[in-house]
């Protein structure tokens, strides 16, 4: 059976489940008595077990099975949650995560062995409850029996063990285990559909653990007239019989109970084809139980999340871009002719494209939660490791950003948080000495701001030591001593972002391993964002990341420089104003103008873009652009107007072109370059 | 680089530049276009002629004459072509004086060791093809595009 098509789904879902397990575990550590959390973790590990079983990932399903045993004991009050249990659960979680990562990269679980974890889980279990110990032994015994019986099924040992484990657990919980043989009417046209109904009915009150032939084949109608199902349930024989007989075109149902204690004997005792079971079903066992669980899962999750292949979305996005280009072209035609209809058509088209754009953008938007939710665990581990007590406060997790941004922003954020915890927040003694709360706080805040999303990483630590930064920069040869004297506070802080910089006296494992903040900056800039730092001695520092909300289509102002047309993103324009050339004065080689009682630096765009500089006219047009709190007046020759533009990359060949962020195609098919306003400052 | 290691024949798109014949491996050639309007890219290398709109895609164009540091005279503007090549995910256009044929060169017709003191720097050439008394310089595209130097500096 080809499992590849399910593999992606498995990986996505497993990741999702692991995340929620992680969250619950962290919560549980804080509130060890919360039953709901415990149940949540139990459910998740159960789900993962089922999914992994389905896909044939026996290591994952074994480990989760053992976890379940322990959780079950805790749930029943046989065990108290201790930090020992939490730690072991976290370790199991790590192992699971590694398995899933391996699966997503290689398609296989990898070599990681978890026997010690299983052992540890069992040790905890056995310490207190001898009852569980007993059943454990039993399960091992029966597994052995089974293996003896099915001597030709070596390959499937795991799956067998799994089925047996489930059966044993069912017995423990006083559930009934049945084997159900169903015969479909010979004249039935849609046997698969009937079988599906049977599965569905049974799933309402029982857990199907096996079927013969496998569910996959049943679905494809690859069976004669009958099939059999092994299930565990609370209901009785009669009810199951009645249930299935109520489905039309079902000829016969035989429900026989499986006696778990004597699996070996029962195989002879139970009438019908029970004795064929090991031989016949073995080869398919893995898939079987899997498939039926699979079905359950899909029905549960429907409507919750929709996963769309990013390639398809990109394609849709391209179509929209195309549409917008055509719209612009039509506008051009419309201006030259006077037909009223044309204008109406354009308005209509415009409405469609706008809606389409919004819709597509929304599909691409993902809450930033997806990045944030891995941090609590990270902070927990870090604070344990460093002996610092740290409280992570997160807000604005629901803020949505483009999917591509999500993928890129994770690493920079990890780096910044590590940085805050390692370098920013002091040790407990130092904090008490400075009159601070012993527990340090790291805040992770996200919020939308116009066309941007802002993410702040703030700590209440010692702040950045400007002098130390300068010293370091001098010793690393980034700046000279003389330069250091003249640096403002902001400029000194900026030094942190220069390549190969690390201010920690000791190079720790956490940060300062050669990859500096410069990598963070580069990464963020590569997705069109920027990063700033605010710092106060003894109060802490704050890293502010500003990211574009959307990456593909923006509103822009088209301007003319001589005969070249450039686009300036509207989001970074504050206003457009005429300024008189007489008012421009030079302060230290920088042209400035007094504008609304503020000194506004002037940017000569034609000089920056390598165009010939003509003599100034009396009145100049200045586009006032902003970057954070800073403003600058960009001198342009002419204004063309506002337009929606589709951002295109200049391609891999032309990377890192100064002052240019990308290109767009105008209505007439010509290319106009988009200015990178941030780099003009 | 040993380009004759494979037993199959090599097909090349032949173009002219300053009176000289050049060849590009046909596997790297996407399409040959007539000249359209360029948009100048400020602060780029001087041999980057600009970017063009290739059916919705922004493609940079390299002026090969400038790239090779040679002179080209008496060019018939109507014959000028842009050969769009792609290599290692990089798509660029090469501006050439004219291009009209595809040539198959067999093993024996390719000389791997170019040491003729021709006008253009040998670094861009990975071999010389000889057919019917014609000499065809076979371009090493990676070097022409500068995958090894320019790109990694940035």
Distance between the termini of chain A: 60 Å
Portion of residues in beta strands of chain A equals: 15-25%
Separate helix tally of chain A: 24
The CATH topology of chain B is OB fold (Dihydrolipoamide Acetyltransferase, E2P)
Main beta-sheet strand count, sense and barrel state of chain A? 6 strands, mixed
Roughly what fraction of the amino acids of chain B lie in strands?
over 45%
Q: Mean pLDDT across all residues of chain A, rounded? A: 75
- Using only C-alpha atoms, the radius of gyration of chain A works out to 33 Å
Broad CATH class of the largest domain in chain A: Alpha Beta
Could you give the topology of this structure?
The complex is a heterodimer of chains A (681) and B (154).
Chain A: H1 4-30, H2 35-55, H3 58-75, H4 83-106, H5 115-128, H6 130-149, H7 157-172, E1 176-184, H8 191-205, E2 206-212, H9 215-219, E3 226-233, H10 237-245, E4 250-257, H11 263-269, H12 277-282, H13 285-301, H14 310-336, H15 340-364, E5 365-367, H16 369-372, H17 375-386, E6 390-395, E7 400-402, H18 403-424, H19 428-433, E8 440-449, E9 452-459, H20 466-475, H21 481-486, H22 489-494, H23 517-526, E10 530-536, E11 540-548, E12 553-561, E13 564-569, E14 573-580, E15 585-587, E16 590-595, E17 598-604, H24 605-608, E18 619-627, E19 630-636, E20 638-646, E21 660-665, E22 671-675
Helix pairs in contact in A: 1-2, 1-4, 2-3, 2-13, 3-4, 3-5, 4-5, 5-6, 6-7, 14-15, 17-18, 18-23
Chain B: E1 10-17, E2 20-25, E3 29-34, E4 48-54, E5 57-63, H1 64-68, E6 81-87, E7 90-96, E8 98-105, E9 110-111, E10 125-131, E11 134-139, H2 141-145, H3 150-153
Parallel strand pairs in B: 2-11, 5-7
Antiparallel strand pairs in B: 1-2, 1-8, 3-6, 4-5, 6-7, 9-10, 10-11
């Amino acid at each position: 059976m080809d499992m590849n098509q399910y593999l992606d789904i498995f990986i996505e879902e497993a990741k999702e489940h692991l995340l929620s397990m992680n969250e619950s575990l962290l919560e549980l550590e804080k509130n060890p008595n919360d039953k709901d959390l415990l149940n949540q973790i139990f459910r998740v590990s159960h789900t993962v077990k089922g999914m992994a079983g389905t896909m044939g990932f026996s290591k994952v399903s074994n480990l989760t099975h053992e976890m379940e045993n322990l959780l079950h004991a805790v749930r029943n009050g046989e065990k108290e949650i201790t930090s020992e249990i939490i730690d072991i659960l976290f370790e199991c979680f790590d192992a699971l995560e590694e398995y899933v990562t391996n699966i997503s990269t290689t398609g296989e679980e990898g070599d990681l062995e978890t026997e010690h974890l299983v052992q540890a889980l069992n040790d905890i279990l056995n310490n207190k409850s001898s009852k569980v110990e007993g059943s454990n032994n039993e399960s091992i015994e029966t597994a052995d029996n089974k293996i003896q019986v099915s001597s030709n099924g070596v390959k499937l040992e795991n799956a067998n063990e799994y089925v047996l484990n489930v059966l044993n657990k069912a017995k423990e919980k006083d559930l009934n285990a049945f084997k159900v043989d169903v015969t479909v009417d010979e004249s039935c046209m849609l046997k698969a559909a009937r079988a599906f109904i049977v599965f569905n009915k049974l799933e309402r009150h029982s857990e199907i653990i096996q079927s013969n032939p496998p569910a996959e084949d049943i679905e494809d109608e690859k069976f004669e007239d009958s099939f059999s199902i092994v299930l565990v349930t609370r209901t009785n024989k009669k009810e199951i019989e009645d249930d299935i007989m109520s489905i039309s075109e079902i000829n016969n149902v035989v429900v026989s109970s499986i006696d778990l204690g004597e699996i070996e004997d029962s195989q002879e005792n139970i009438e019908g084809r029970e004795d064929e079971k090991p031989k016949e079903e073995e080869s398919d066992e893995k898939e079987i139980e899997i498939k039926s669980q699979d079905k359950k899962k899909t029905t549960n999750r429907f409507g919750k999340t929709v996963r769309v292949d990013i390639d398809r979305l990109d394609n849709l996005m391209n179509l929209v871009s195309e549409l917008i280009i055509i719209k612009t072209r039509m506008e051009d035609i419309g201006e030259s002719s006077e037909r009223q209809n044309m204008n109406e058509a354009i308005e209509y088209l415009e409405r469609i494209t706008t809606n389409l754009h919004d819709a597509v953008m929304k599909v691409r938007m993902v809450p930033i939660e997806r990045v944030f939710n891995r941090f609590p665990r990270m902070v927990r581990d870090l604070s344990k490791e460093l002996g610092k007590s740290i409280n992570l406060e997160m807000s604005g997790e629901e803020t949505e950003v483009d999917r591509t941004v999500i993928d890129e922003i994770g690493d920079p954020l990890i780096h910044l948080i590590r940085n805050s915890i390692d370098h920013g927040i002091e040790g407990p003694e130092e904090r008490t000495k400075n009159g601070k709360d012993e527990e340090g706080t790291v805040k992770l805040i996200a919020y939308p701001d116009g066309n941007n999303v802002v993410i702040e990483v703030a700590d209440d630590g010692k702040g950045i030591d400007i002098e130390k930064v300068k010293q370091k920069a001098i010793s690393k040869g980034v700046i000279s001593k003389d330069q250091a004297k003249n640096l403002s506070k902001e400029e000194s802080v900026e030094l942190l972002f220069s390549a190969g910089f690390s201010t920690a006296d000791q190079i720790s494992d956490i940060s300062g391993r050669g990859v500096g903040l410069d990598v963070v900056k580069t990464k963020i800039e590569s997705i069109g964002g920027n990063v700033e730092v605010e710092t106060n001695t003894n109060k802490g520092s704050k890293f502010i990341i500003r990211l574009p909300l959307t990456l593909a289509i923006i509103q822009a102002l088209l301007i003319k420089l001589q005969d070249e047309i450039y686009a300036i993103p509207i989001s970074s324009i504050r206003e457009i104003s005429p300024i008189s050339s007489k008012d421009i004065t030079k302060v230290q080689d920088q042209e400035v103008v007094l504008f609304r009682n503020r000194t506004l630096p002037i940017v000569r765009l034609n000089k920056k873009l390598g165009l010939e500089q003509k003599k100034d006219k009396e009145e100049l047009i200045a586009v006032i652009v902003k970057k954070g709190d800073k403003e600058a007046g960009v001198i342009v020759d002419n204004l063309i107007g506002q337009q929606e533009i589709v951002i295109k990359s200049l391609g891999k060949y032309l990377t890192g072109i100064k002052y240019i962020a990308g290109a767009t195609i105008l209505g007439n098919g010509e290319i106009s370059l988009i200015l990178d306003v941030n780099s003009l400052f | 680089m040993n380009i004759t290691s494979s037993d199959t024949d090599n097909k090349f798109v032949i173009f002219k530049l300053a009176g000289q014949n050049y060849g590009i491996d046909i596997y790297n050639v996407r399409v040959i276009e007539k000249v359209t309007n360029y948009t100048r890219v400020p602060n780029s290398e001087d041999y980057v002629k600009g970017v063009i709109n290739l059916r919705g895609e922004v493609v940079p164009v390299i002026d090969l004459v400038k790239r090779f540091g040679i002179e080209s005279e008496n060019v018939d503007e109507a014959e000028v072509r842009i050969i769009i090549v792609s290599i290692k995910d990089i798509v660029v256009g090469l501006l050439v004086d004219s291009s009209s044929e595809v040539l198959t060169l067999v093993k024996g017709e390719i000389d791997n060791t170019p040491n003729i003191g021709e006008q253009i720097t040998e670094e861009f050439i990975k071999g010389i093809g000889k057919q019917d008394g014609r000499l065809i310089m076979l371009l090493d595209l990676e070097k022409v595009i500068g995958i090894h130097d320019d790109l990694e500096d940035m």
